[in-house]
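sry for the spam today, last one i promise. C-alpha cells for design, 200 residues
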C-alpha cells in the first residue's frame, strides 16, 4: 500500500507542477493572447475528462487499473516533450496537443490509481484507503503548485522559456520515476510475462 501511495504522490507531482505555468508559458513564449491561453484550461480539462471516461470504460470491462495508470504516466512524457518543443518551434498547435495529452494522461493515471486503491483494500477498509489516496493526492498537488512557480523563477537565468522548460523536464523525470516505482506492482502479464491461462 505504501508503494501504491508513493506512485500516487510521484505521479501527482509530475502532472501538477505545470498547472500555474501553462497559461503564462503560452503568453510569454508563444505570444498567445489572454483569450487563447484561457482556452488551454478547457483543453486540459477536456483531455482529463476523455481520459477518465476512457479509463472508466476499459476498467469496467475488467482491465488492470495499475496498467491503466502506467499508460497515463507514460503518455505524460511525450506530452511534456511536445510542450517544450512547441516553444522551440513557435507552434501553438503542438502546444495545444501537448496540453490535451497531459489531460488524457492525468485522467488515465488518476482513475487507474484510484480504482487500484479501492480494489486492493479489504472490504471494511475501502473508505480508509480512499481517504489515504485523497490525502496523498491533495498534499502532492499542493506541493507541486508551489514547486512549479518557485522552480520556474529559480531557472529563469536559462533565458526565454528556460525556467518553464526546466520544470517540464523535471516533470518528465518524475513520470519516469513514477513508472519505475509502479513497474514492480504490475501483474505478470502487464509487466511483459507470459499470459496466465486458467483451466476450466
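last one done:
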Amino acid at each position: 500500500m505504501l508503494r501504491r501511495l508513493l506512485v500516487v504522490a510521484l505521479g501527482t507531482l509530475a502532472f501538477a507542477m505545470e498547472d500555474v505555468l501553462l497559461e503564462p508559458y503560452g503568453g510569454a513564449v508563444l505570444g498567445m493572447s489572454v483569450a487563447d491561453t484561457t482556452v488551454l484550461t478547457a483543453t486540459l480539462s477536456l483531455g482529463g475528462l476523455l481520459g477518465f471516461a476512457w479509463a472508466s470504460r476499459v476498467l469496467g470491462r475488467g482491465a488492470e487499473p495499475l496498467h491503466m495508470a502506467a499508460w497515463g504516466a507514460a503518455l505524460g512524457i511525450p506530452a511534456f516533450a511536445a510542450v517544450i518543443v512547441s516553444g522551440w518551434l513557435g507552434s501553438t498547435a503542438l502546444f495545444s496537443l501537448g496540453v490535451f495529452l497531459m489531460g488524457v494522461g492525468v485522467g488515465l493515471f488518476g482513475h487507474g490509481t484510484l480504482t487500484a486503491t479501492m480494489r486492493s483494500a479489504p472490504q471494511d477498509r475501502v473508505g480508509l484507503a480512499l481517504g489515504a489516496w485523497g490525502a496523498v493526492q491533495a498534499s502532492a498537488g499542493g506541493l507541486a503548485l508551489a514547486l512549479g512557480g518557485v522552480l520556474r523563477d529559480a531557472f529563469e537565468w536559462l533565458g526565454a522559456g528556460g525556467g518553464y522548460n526546466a520544470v517540464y523536464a523535471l516533470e518528465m523525470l518524475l513520470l519516469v520515476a513514477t513508472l519505475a516505482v509502479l513497474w514492480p506492482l504490475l501483474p505478470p502479464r502487464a509487466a511483459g510475462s507470459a499470459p496466465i491461462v486458467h483451466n476450466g
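Residues 2-185 form a domain with the Growth Hormone; Chain: A; fold (CATH 1.20.1250.20). ok im logging off now
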